Amino acid sequence: MIRLTRLNGEEFILNADLIRFIETGPDTFITLTTNDRLVVREKVEDVVARAIDYARRIRMLPAA
After folding, report:
1. Cα–Cα distance between 49 and 4 in angstroms, integer?
2. What is the pLDDT of residues 31-50, one digit of tens each?
3. Architecture of domain 2-59 in this structure
4. Contact status, residue 29 vs residue 61, Cβ threshold 8 Å
5. pTM over 0.70
6. How far apart are CA 43 and CA 59, in angstroms?
7. In whole angstroms, what separates CA 19 from the centre of its chain?
């Protein structure tokens, strides 16, 4: 699970395993495997880093 922030400042927890796409524009858009779409304050790089950290913790993958 990763902590993210909606545009209105509300924090929420997302199951990173559900992320299908992350897109950048003026905002960061996350499309889930359920086809739901979220807009968050974090930059694409931050979301990717959090998702990778989550995967490492859960799957006990070694750090690069």
Report:
1. 12
2. 999 999 999 999 999 999 99
3. Beta Barrel (2.40)
4. no
5. yes
6. 24
7. 7
Sketch the domain layout of the chain as residue ranges.
2-59
Which are the contacts of 49, defined by CB distance < 8 A and separation ≥ 6? Answer: none
**Region for residue 17 given its phi and psi (left: phi exceeds 0; alpha: psi -120 to 50; beta: otherwise):** alpha
| Residue owning tokens 């968050």 | 40
Dihedral sign, CA of 13, 23, 51, 34? Answer: positive
3-state DSSP assignment of residue 37: strand
What is the C-alpha separation between 33 and 57, in angstroms, rounded? 21
What tokens were used for 3?
Answer: 């902590």
